[in-house]
Design brief:
Number of strands: 0
Largest sheet: none
Number of helices: 5
Order of helices and strands: HHHHH
Protein name: DUF4844 domain-containing protein
Pfam families: DUF4844
Shape: globular
InterPro entries: DUF4844, DUF4844_sf
Helix content: 55-70%
Length: 120
């Protein structure tokens, strides 16, 4: 089960209010190609973050957690690969908040359609 605590909620709330999909030189991300795309991508991520903030006290299952993230990834598929990459970097931030070290190939699958680590 994945549970919230005060520290996690504070980090999620900080991420929620951040303006997303703007240029980020550290990540070599040029920013969304238009304000409309930026707002759509940001909204998809904010829905995920808000759902995580609203997690019931009993917690959510890992499947529920990954299902939330996958909904956002589905939105990013309609845009340029840069938006998908930036969306996945936000998901990695969320994974860090929850001390989740691996997506078990999910992020690669959402990005590339398969997990290159399993393509031997």
């Amino acid at each position: 089960m994945i549970h919230n605590n005060t520290e996690r909620v504070q980090k999620l709330e900080k991420l929620l209010v951040e303006k997303k999909f703007t240029a980020d030189e550290k990540l070599f991300y040029p920013g969304a190609p238009s304000e409309e795309v930026r707002a759509t991508c940001e909204q998809a991520m904010n829905i995920v973050i808000q759902a995580l903030i609203d997690t019931p006290e009993a917690g959510i299952t890992e499947n529920e957690f990954w299902s939330l993230l996958e909904k956002a990834a589905t939105v990013y598929k309609q845009f340029d690969s840069e938006e998908m990459d930036r969306g996945l970097s936000y998901m990695e931030e969320i994974m860090d908040i929850y001390d989740i070290e691996s997506s078990d190939g999910r992020l690669n699958t959402w990005r590339y359609g398969f997990d290159p680590a399993n393509s031997h």
